[in-house]
């Protein structure tokens, strides 16, 4: 259900996000036929709490999944291809589980997939850490408009958008909203304002 002002609509509620994450956790277990060698790496900023939320669901589905040894984060700041044209940003921590990424099935987790350039940077950052057996991509929202040959394996919501729109994910851990107020919002005038 979409609600909000004429320019801004809520396209996922907290309950929608919750259901999508639960489905993705089940998809991961099914794709893997279990959780062996599975590692989740969240891409800051919002990929980190999303990876945490997925890890909690995975450990409930299969207690062999231990978030303490299978959950981490992967900062991509220094691997971006637009470092010179974006506002400077302080890198966030990269936390790799003690076992490392070699031979693991690494699931990169992010909130929005758009051009694909963040994921391209994440693949470069990951290759500096080791050689996973496989890499998968889980995102809460795929809004289209890829500029690189990258696709997600697990998607919470496919959201057709125009380039002039902006998709914003609001999570309690990053945005300070209550858990019940977590949401995905589309702003139809965002890019027009940024361009003016
Ligand atoms: O596919 P792309 O075109 O790379 O866009 C997707 C990325 O854009 C946002 O990150 P942003 O760089 O805005 O920083 P944030 O994680 O702090 O929101 C979002 O969190 C994704 O990581
Ligand atoms: O709409 C967009 C595009 C890139 N990244 C986002 O978080 N939202």
Automatic annotation (TrEMBL):
InterPro entries: PRTase-like, PRTase_dom, PyrR, PyrR_bifunctional. It comes from the Bacteria. Keywords: Glycosyltransferase, Transcription, Transcription regulation, Transferase. Its EC number is 2.4.2.9. Residues 19-154 form the Phosphoribosyltransferase domain. It is an enzyme of class 2 (transferase). Signal peptide: none annotated. It catalyses: UMP + diphosphate = 5-phospho-alpha-D-ribose 1-diphosphate + uracil. A motif (PRPP-binding) lies at residues 106-118. One of its GO terms (molecular function) is uracil phosphoribosyltransferase activity. HAMAP family: PyrR. Belongs to the purine/pyrimidine phosphoribosyltransferase family. PyrR subfamily. Also displays a weak uracil phosphoribosyltransferase activity which is not physiologically significant. Regulates the transcription of the pyrimidine nucleotide (pyr) operon in response to exogenous pyrimidines. PANTHER family: BIFUNCTIONAL PROTEIN PYRR (PTHR11608). This is Bifunctional protein PyrR. It comes from Nesterenkonia aerolata.
